[in-house]
Design a protein that fits this description.
Layout: H1 10-19, E1 25-28, H2 31-41, E2 46-49, H3 53-65, E3 71-76, E4 92-95, H4 108-114, H5 117-126, H6 136-166, H7 179-185, H8 195-206, H9 212-226, H10 235-250, H11 256-266, H12 271-274, H13 277-285
Parallel strand pairs: 1-2, 1-3, 3-4
Length: about 290
């Protein structure tokens, strides 16, 4: 069975889970979670992909209403975490690296980048040239911190825009940044944040001259509150920036999708147990999760 064949309609999944109480299920947002979890969950539970967080949360609500206890719903916390929009709910597990808020991450990709999987990615792409940068550990630690610093600033703008939208006011979300956009946000040689370049890119992405001063101020406030951790770091931003940095270092063009594929493949073995969600899924699959969890 291919990965894509496991994606089903919400109605089919909830009906199947409810009708097979002796079978355990893990409900996930997309193919990336499916790919990462399959080797660890194995034959202990069936993974069902529901194409997005809203559908996973809706499935959880339906099944919880039916009293089902043979499932868990795994979702990204996303930028909702810093906006206070996430809520604890029974059988809902947020993807996060640590129970400590300062180390928490908000989605699968940022969680993997916080783990030792990032070093494996760097070794795959950079190879022996890592010795020119002080070795694999030093290079990995340096580029991870660069990713955190830059994407937390971008994430602050994303969260600011979302907060205005949740207040019922019209504003366009900040879309994906292209390789050229990222090149304008960081200094090409050092990889450090280019703040004037960031502001120009965000001004262009917000596309609302009147609201931009408010967005900028909210972004600054959000960064001051959360910018020293990982809660503003969106995983796809981090992998896109990583692809841009590796492309510059190697003098070629590396796609975000290539970086993410390598990241998923590098996440194995003990790394699963090092995340906050890994032990919770193990407890569920082995029948140790409390009924009210």
């Amino acid at each position: 069975m291919s990965l894509r064949q496991t994606a089903q309609r919400l109605e089919d999944v909830t009906a199947t889970v409810a009708m097979t109480p002796n079978q355990r299920y893990v409900l996930v947002e997309g193919e990336s979670e499916l790919k990462v979890l399959r080797p660890h969950v194995g034959g202990r539970a069936i993974i069902r992909e529901l194409k997005g967080r809203p559908k996973v949360e809706e499935a959880r609500r339906i099944l919880d209403g039916r009293g089902a206890q043979n499932f868990v719903a795994l979702v990204d916390a996303d930028l909702d975490q810093v906006l206070g929009l996430n809520r604890e709910a029974s059988r809902l597990v947020y993807v996060s690296l640590s129970g400590a808020n300062g180390d928490s991450t908000i989605d699968l990709e940022s969680t993997l980048l916080r783990s030792r999987a990032l070093q494996a990615v760097c070794e795959q792409f950079v190879g022996k040239r890592l010795l020119d940068f002080g070795g694999p550990v030093r290079f990995t630690d340096s580029i991870r911190e660069q990713l955190r610093v830059v994407t937390s600033e971008v994430g602050a703008y994303r969260a600011a825009v979302k907060s205005i939208f949740t207040e019922g006011r019209s504003i366009q979300p900040i879309g994906e940044l292209s390789a050229d956009d990222w090149a304008a946000v960081v200094h090409p040689h050092s990889g450090e944040l280019n703040r004037p370049g960031l502001e120009r890119q965000m001004h262009e992405k917000v596309r609302n001259v009147e609201k931009f001063p408010e967005v900028k101020q909210r972004a600054r406030d959000l960064w001051q509150g959360h910018g020293h951790g990982w809660l503003l770091c969106r995983g796809h931003d981090m992998t896109a920036l990583l692809a841009t940095r590796l492309s510059h270092i190697l003098g070629g063009f590396i796609k975000r999708s290539e970086v993410e594929e390598s990241l998923y493949d590098s996440y194995h073995g003990s790394l699963f147990k090092e995340t906050a969600f890994g032990p919770k899924l193990n407890d569920f699959c082995d029948g140790r999760m409390a009924a009210h969890a």
